[in-house]
Amino acid sequence: MRSSLSRYYNCFFSIWRSICTSTATVLAFCRDADEKKNVSSLAHFCSLGLIIFLLTALPDIAFGNQSGRTERHVLPVFQIPAEGLVTIAPEYLEFLEGVDHTASFDSLEQADWGENLINDQSLVDGYWVRFRVANTLASEDIGIEHNFNTEKKIFAAHSRGVDEYPYWKQREGDWIDEGRVLGHYRVLMPAGEITTVYDYFRNKPFDRYMSKVNGLDRMTIGPWKDIRSLQLLGLAANIAVLAIALSFGLYYFFMFTVSRGNYLWLAASLFQIAFCSATTLSLGWVMQLPGWLVNSEFTLASLSLLFLFLVRFFRNSLNLGANFPRIDRIFLLASIFYGLMVALNLYLTLSWPQQANLDLVAHPPDRAGPGIIKVDAIMLPFILLLLSSAIMSFIQWRRGSLYAKYLLVSFALPFLAVPISGLTYFIFDFSWAFWFVVSSAVGILFLAMFVTFGFAVAQQLNDMKALALAQQVELTRAYQRFVPPQLLSNLNKDSILDVRLGDQVNVEMSIMFSDIRSFTSISERLSPQENFSFVNAYLSRMAPIIRNHEGYIDKFMGDGLMALFPNQPRDAIRSAVAMQQELHSYNATARETGQHEINIGIGLNTGKMMLGTLGEANRMEGSVISDAVNLASRLEGLTKIYGANILVSEMTHNALADEFVSRRVDLVAVKGKEKPVGIYEIIDGEPNQGRVLKEKTMASFNEGVSFYHAQEFEKASSCFRRVLELNLDDQAANRYLDRCKTLLREGWDPENWDGIERLQIK
Questions:
Q1: In angstroms, rounded to a whole number, what is the distance separating the alpha carbons of residues 11 and 64?
Q2: pLDDT for position 48
Q3: How far is residue 558 from each of residues 305, 453, 587, 671, measured CA to CA in Å?
Q4: To the nearest whole number, what is the mean pLDDT of the chain?
Q5: 662, pLDDT greater than 90
Q6: What is the pLDDT of residues 697-723, one digit of tens each?
Q7: β-pairing, 560-565 with 552-557?
Q8: The predicted structure's pLDDT at residue 205
Q9: Which of 457, 511, 557, 577 could lock 632 by a disulfide, CB 3.0 to 4.6 Å apart?
Q10: What is the torsion angle, in degrees rounded to the nearest 10, for the CA atoms of residue 647, residue 649, residue 651 and residue 652?
Q11: CA–CA separation, 711 vs 487, rounded Å?
């Protein structure tokens, strides 16, 4: 409603506009006119200016600027859509400040309404909104939705009178009423009529932040059934988010219990999302949660806690401490910040008087208490952290990290809300459909982010397992240089980590002792470095031969070695023969290069032995213990006495069949053993010439040994002389001949003589 003063103002403005127009016309002419020659023309133009003045001014004078008065005095009528909800645009609204919800309808009718809110404090104290609605529907049930505004009162003026919809204020114990709940009202508007609605607004702190138009959160209007559908849809959406978040949270927690990894913080974040969904205003109201659980400050505390969990998850997923230590400090500060936000908002929630919480006049939100922490103070840092995480995941992906690509997708998903919001705004403007689509898209993208996070964590664990496996392989290879894998196999252990002091098994094996003859005299002529180089060059030739014949070296003993053959005795014999053959090749090279030629003796025995670990808790080694081991060592020492390259025990020899050329050398009782052992020489490993000579004299040698044990020493002596005539270097034949001579010279006791050679060799 405009005053008379306003009309006079408009009339004066019209006159002033006409004067200015006429003056401008005259000046335009005079700019080029000759005053002496164009006086008559000037008169004509003055007449023209007067006509222009009358044509422009008189309508305004006569009608008082009716168009302006209509715009200012008569509200346009908003038409309710047949279905769905639409937002009431600002041009359909008028505002009244300084009057609270106790105002009567008559006082509102007589008040001076404005086009805009002027006083910012109106957002605290409350204000009235007026608009006109044309109901073209068959139903009178019209719904008005006020997002985030829960303190409401409505007057609806129509042909039947004025309906009052009482002031509604959230209180503990309130339940959903069919026609009035939270910010939703069912207003009766006669069909085919225009209803003037007087709507009272009271903004709470969180609502104040969310205000969009003139400090007023947009209203949507439409059929009541659609309002209820929207309400139920929002409730269903919250329940869906709650169920999905809780399900995935439980799944990720289970995965954490199984495989550890970064699932714990992921599960904690999803549990917090479920909690935030449960404490939303709509769902919390249905669940009859305490009022302090659904107020805005507690919501901010829950949101801060969620971001705290996510920041910790980001740090662990990106391994910022190792990959980006400086940025990790920023994320650490962000964690501290969100921790403080949680504490502060919880304090505000628990300490602020709950009934006074809604009395914003007495407790303004921007001075003390609720509302001092805004959403943007919490959201903006998290968005920056999310963007930084996306960049760092891209860098790690380019560096070759497999799981980083899943992280990149996860971090990028929330930013898809930007183009979705732009497209939705282009289609729906800032209507309820816009907010519904955008909020749904954000929720879906947020949950999808957690799904891809799960893939990222799984891939990260796979990468870690692959790396650990590769390291384990390398470590195993390194261990194998010190601990033979066959030892672990014989101990029934999968890893060196499983070996304990005192682990032992009883097995039957063949054991080999090998030693370089006269090594001491050779090493005396060499420097320490030359000694190591010499021995390593020799052992590097022999060790592969042992491995190739199913054996493994138990230990190196200076110039000698001890090897075990778990499978069968012929493996040990074949290995010994191959070692002697390799030695011939080694000596041939040594002769050509002027290096030392060497000879080795090999002793082999087969028997039961105890394989296990010896030492103490901090230092142990695998080894074998038994008489069979000692005998093998003694046999290696006897090779020097009998001039043999390979000597084997009778037990080992009996397992060979006819695969190798051998001869029985003697029946001996070595040091530490009373029971005599038959020993055999394997001829196959001899140099070509030596082998040929021993094969030629084999019959005479064996015959001489038979005569010897039959106490026919004359005949035995004759046999051994025949051997020596062909092979003067046959030390075994020489040794038998010396024994025969001694027995024939000194005599013997036929009853007590057993033919056993008792040796004290170590």
A1: 6
A2: 47
A3: 66, 57, 20, 23
A4: 77
A5: no
A6: 889 998 998 998 888 989 989 998 998
A7: antiparallel
A8: 53
A9: 511
A10: -20
A11: 47
Which band of pLDDT confidence, cut at 50, 70 and 90, is reported for residue 6?
very low
Which residues is 157 bridged to in the sheet? 162, 196
Is the predicted pLDDT of residue 355 greater than 70, yes or no?
no
Helices (H), 103-175: 105-110, 122-125
pLDDT of residue 229: 81
Residue type, 179: G
Distances (CA, A) of 563 to 16, 391, 512, 660, 695: 121, 58, 5, 20, 29
DSSP class per residue in 596-648: ----EEEEEEEEEEEEEEEEETTEEEEEEESHHHHHHHHHHHHHHHHT-SEEE
Residues of the chain with pLDDT > 90, as a percent, come to 18
Tokens 């590769």 belong to 470
HEC string of 668-722 equals: EECCCCCCCEEEEEEHHHCCHHHHHHHHHCHHHHHHHHHHHHCCCHHHHHHHHHH
Among 742, 697, 755, CA closest to 721: 697
Per the CB < 8 A criterion, the answer to whether 294 and 277 are in contact is no
Give yes or no for residue 166 having a pLDDT over 90. Answer: no
**Phi-psi category of residue 568: left, alpha or beta, with phi > 0 → left and psi -120 to 50 → alpha:** beta
Cα 148 to Cα 83: distance, rounded to the nearest angstrom? 23
- Between the CA of residue 177 and those of 186, 226, 285, 436, 754, what are the distances in Å? 10, 16, 12, 23, 118
The pLDDT, as a whole number, for residue 58 is 45
- The CA distance from 446 to 442, in Å, is 6
Cα dihedral value 513, 572, 696, 743, nearest 10:
40
State the number of CA atoms in the 13 A half-sphere of 588 facing the CB.
7
Alpha carbon 653 to chain centroid distance? 61
* Backbone phi, psi, residue 334, to 5°: -60, -40
Contacts 24+ apart (CB under 8 A), 537-543: 538/586, 538/598, 541/582, 541/586, 542/514, 542/579, 542/582
**Strand order across the 180-181 sheet:** 86-87, 219-223, 141-146, 184-188, 180-181
pLDDT band at residue 428 under the 50/70/90 scheme = confident
Please report the pLDDT score of residue 751 as a whole number. Answer: 83
